[in-house]
Amino acid sequence: MDEVGVDNIAMLQIKPKPYTFKTKMPRLHNREYLTQIRKHLRNNSTASEATLWKILKKRQVGGYKFRRQHSIGKYVVDFYCPELQLVLELDGEPHANLVNNAIDCERDEFIESYGITVFRYENRWVYEYSEVIIQEILEFGEKNKSGSVK
Length: 150
Description:
Layout: H1 3-13, H2 35-43, H3 47-56, E1 67-72, E2 75-81, E3 86-91, H4 98-112, E4 117-122, H5 123-128, H6 130-146
Parallel strand pairs: 3-4
Antiparallel strand pairs: 1-2, 2-3
């Protein structure tokens, strides 16, 4: 065979290998190394977290399932709704200073970079304005269903 024929045969015998990942993508949600921390936080929740959990658990708000002390990346959030891609954070007195505020902003940016929305409330809102929190969740859910959010 001439040179052209040899090249054609060689090309027919080489099959491209499908691209495969040699390393797994790291888990984003509920990383194993945070399991004990999440469990500790659930067992030692603040009064406002416990009160809000009574409102959110068992799909009582719009039929949405919320998880308590859920981790996203290296951060543990107070409440997370996978269906809505929504995080609820309750902030007490420690979050009022500038250093913790900057940490919260960094954390929110990380979480929001994955398309997850973060709602932050002061602890007192759970007692004084719980109906506002519920309404904001429901409104967010409605906007999400109509496709105008994401």
